Amino acid sequence: MSRLDSFIRRLEAQRACLGSGAALVCDLDGPVLELGLGNGRTYDHLRELCPGREIYVCERHVAAHPDCVPPAQFLLLGDMRDTLRTARKELEGRVVLAHFDPATGDIAASRALARELAPLILPLLCPGAVLVSEPALVAIGLALPLPAGVAVGRYNLYQRVNRQSPP
Amino acid sequence: MSRLDSFIRRLEAQRACLGSGAALVCDLDGPVLELGLGNGRTYDHLRELCPGREIYVCERHVAAHPDCVPPAQFLLLGDMRDTLRTARKELEGRVVLAHFDPATGDIAASRALARELAPLILPLLCPGAVLVSEPALVAIGLALPLPAGVAVGRYNLYQRVNRQSPP
Q1: pLDDT tens for each residue of B75-99
Q2: Which one of A26, A162, B15, B155 has the fewest beta carbons within 10 angstroms of its own beta carbon?
Q3: To which H or E segment does residue A153 belong?
Q4: Chain centroid to CA B77: how far?
Q5: Which residues of B touch A106 (CB under 8 A)?
Q6: pLDDT digits 0-9 by tens, B35-80
Q7: Do A2 and B68 touch (CB under 8 A)?
Q8: pLDDT tens, A7-61?
Q9: Are B14 and B42 in contact (CB under 8 A)?
């Protein structure tokens, strides 16, 4: 498979997983969290998938297409290690759908960042929330089945399960 | 349509047009010309589509994935306005398949560059050669029908027609 084929499959997997995630949380109230804006393509897609939802976006430096820059009040500007901690006051237990795709092209770096950020993302999710992630994450919740056509490992869907007190 | 949808359609159109172009020239002898290397994705795809063909690649500064850097003898390094002129000695009337996609995101700039480069690309093509181009080009040859699923204007296929002497 060429790098062009592989890139197209990755984007198709991303789109399919975002679609599944949005459908799974359609009955939950709460905002969406986009972990990284980049050129704004997936933010734009999330806006279409989740009309009317607040979409918070983490980004270090905004360099997106001007049409895809979130309103200032939803932009968490800075290093995600800091902004996710700060956002806890406002977003703890409220986020229904989060998307994480560092898209660095460096698998080891993506996984390392995912390990570092997972404990900061998890507290923001409400029970039943879905995290759509390119890197695999451990101990983040229940791994959900992937949409048809998405190969295992290409993209990942996790659901935050209800915390239950011990019997 | 979101920017993610639009980007995926663009890449799918690119892939379909490259496939059509390669199929149309399969009986012609001669090299392929990739006008811009970028990250090397389409170069990699052309290698798969055209095994055994020489693939010449124009690029100002190589910044592709290390797996996708052409051998030095096929790399035309520098501004295409210069390198296409220099390449005429070696490639005039020999290229069977060329691909042009500046992917700047700036439609006006792409079209202006296309207008400037078309007279430099045309003499390199052999009769029957196919040019796969994202920007539309005028007076470059016969516009060919697009592959199924590719919307008119999204990508373009041109064939150099045989020059005939006047009757």
Answers
A1: 999 999 999 999 999 999 999 999 9
A2: A162
A3: none
A4: 16
A5: none
A6: 999 999 999 999 999 999 999 999 999 999 999 999 999 999 999 9
A7: no
A8: 999 999 999 999 999 999 999 999 999 999 999 999 999 999 999 999 999 999 9
A9: yes
ipTM over 0.90: yes
Tokens of B6: 């639009």
| List of chain B residues whose C-beta atoms are within 8 Å of the C-beta of residue A12 | 8
The minimal CB distance from B4 to the residues A2, A5, A15 is found for A15
Of A78-82, A149-153, B1-5, B139-143, the range with the lowest mean pLDDT is B139-143
**Are the beta carbons of B3 and A47 separated by less than 8 Å?**
no
Interface A–B counts its CB contacts (< 8 A) at 58
pLDDT for A167 equals 47
- The residue among B52, B56, B22, B24 whose CA lies nearest residue B128 is B24
Q: Do B8 and A12 touch (CB under 8 A)?
A: yes
d(CA B129, CA B126): 5
- What is the Cα–Cα distance from B125 to B119, expressed in whole angstroms? 11
Question: Rounded to an integer, what is the distance from CA A150 to the centroid of its chain?
Answer: 17
CA distance B55 to A25: 48
**B47, closest residue in chain A (CA to CA):** A2
Contacts of A51 (CB under 8 A, 6+ apart): none
Going by DSSP bridges, is the β-strand pair B75-77/A32-35 parallel, antiparallel, or unpaired? unpaired
Cβ distance B4 to A14 less than 8 Å, yes or no, reads yes
